[in-house]
């Protein structure tokens, strides 16, 4: 067992307007994102299955070309290798979970 205090973790900012605290285990990676309003997430894909959980705010996620409106309390499962992108409508707090772990985010 390992206790993790997010405030002790370094910031991770792979895209302008997106800042995360990352947690990695042998089986998954978790990102606690703070997203500025109006920030775009470029189109991309990865082999990891992903679950996106909107904690605060409104976000539009495009999954395989289909825009999906997400608000606080919504979750979306993104299959591995699915092409996706997005934009924050408002400031957002988002938790993403990936399996297997995102070694490229370590």
Which percent range fits the helix content?
under 10%
Q: Which consecutive residue ranges, at least 5 long each, have pLDDT under 50?
A: none
How many strands, what sense, and barrel or not for the largest sheet? 6 strands, antiparallel
| SS summary, helix count | 0
Number of domains: 1
User: Which of globular, elongated, flat, extended, rod-shaped describes the shape?
Assistant: globular
How would you write the strand order of the largest sheet?
1-2-3-10-5-8
Please count the beta strands (DSSP E, at least 2 residues each).
10
Structural overview:
The chain has a single domain, classed as Sandwich (Jelly Rolls). It is globular. Helices cover 0% and strands 58% of the residues. It is mainly beta and 106 residues long. It has a six-stranded antiparallel sheet, with no helix packed on it. Strands 4-9-6-7 form a four-stranded antiparallel sheet, with no helix packed on it. The chain starts with 10 loop residues before the first strand and ends in a 7-residue tail after the last strand. The mean pLDDT is 97.
Spell out the key features of this protein.
106 residues; mainly beta; Jelly Rolls; six-stranded antiparallel beta sheet; 0% helix
Outline of the structure:
Helix content is 0%, strand content 58%. With 106 residues, the protein is mainly beta. The chain has a six-stranded antiparallel beta sheet with strand order 1-2-3-10-5-8, with no helix packed on it. The protein has a four-stranded antiparallel beta sheet with strand order 4-9-6-7, with no helix packed on it.
